[in-house]
């Protein structure tokens, strides 16, 4: 556990080494991929990118780079929103990928606010990030939160947990997974009364609200573990999380960093998910879990 925690300042909280956790997950997954390849199967992801959203382009590049480094195959399909009959084209493409046995996972990247028809069309067995809500695993970000706690040896049984944010990608699935492990979970959202009063009771605080440096020490119990899922830009254009690390560092016990934080583990869990989908489709049923 020691290699997954470190201190920048001897008098402050420990930082969770998410980069090292991600590396451990990736190394384990690479070994499993090698064994699957010996059976003649190369896990392969189809990435369908619709439009030219800069964030999606950056994410697509990071995914393909990671696939290459881990021996995962991928195919990139790009469709312009300006194309004639674009909607029909991407729905037809998804149908084709659903029926292609050489494709084990499908990921659709669409601009925010766009129609999500292509997402709901994905065959759940190939839904590597459970964006349909019908997949065989939890969303990768939610899986990453649980994996981080597992790697630093946190037993959730009997723990009081507060989750800020109730999204389908993080808040709700994390709450479900934690309750499955017998934690007592409070989910806070925009309509919650006295959120700080509730989060200060939590042994573990998960923050996924998308507001830069929102969470300060008034939200944190002494010695609590804080998982900061947020990725934002501060007023100076620098990457930051939803948590103000300077504010909580003398109160929290441990926290994930904004840079190379939960996002690094999420990508590792995506690679693991691609492997799991490939294994399930070619070798039979398996149990899906975070770590």
Automatic annotation (TrEMBL):
The keyword Ribonucleoprotein does not apply. GO terms for biological process: L-histidine biosynthetic process; methionine biosynthetic process; purine nucleotide biosynthetic process; tetrahydrofolate interconversion. One of its GO terms (molecular function) is methenyltetrahydrofolate cyclohydrolase activity. NADP(+) binds at residues 165-167, 231. Gene3D superfamilies: Leucine Dehydrogenase, chain A, domain 1, NAD(P)-binding Rossmann-like Domain. It comes from the Bacteria. Keywords: Amino-acid biosynthesis, Histidine biosynthesis, Hydrolase, Methionine biosynthesis, Multifunctional enzyme, NADP, One-carbon metabolism, Oxidoreductase, Purine biosynthesis. GO terms for cellular component: cytosol. Residues 16-129 form the Tetrahydrofolate dehydrogenase/cyclohydrolase catalytic domain. Its EC number is 1.5.1.5, 3.5.4.9. Residues 139-280 form the Tetrahydrofolate dehydrogenase/cyclohydrolase NAD(P)-binding domain. Pathway: One-carbon metabolism; tetrahydrofolate interconversion. InterPro entries: Aminoacid_DH-like_N_sf, NAD(P)-bd_dom_sf, THF_DH/CycHdrlase, THF_DH/CycHdrlase_cat_dom, THF_DH/CycHdrlase_NAD-bd_dom. It catalyses: (6R)-5,10-methenyltetrahydrofolate + H2O = (6R)-10-formyltetrahydrofolate + H(+); (6R)-5,10-methylene-5,6,7,8-tetrahydrofolate + NADP(+) = (6R)-5,10-methenyltetrahydrofolate + NADPH. It holds the Pfam family THF_DHG_CYH. Catalyzes the oxidation of 5,10-methylenetetrahydrofolate to 5,10-methenyltetrahydrofolate and then the hydrolysis of 5,10-methenyltetrahydrofolate to 10-formyltetrahydrofolate. Belongs to the tetrahydrofolate dehydrogenase/cyclohydrolase family. Homodimer. This is Bifunctional protein FolD. The gene is folD_3.
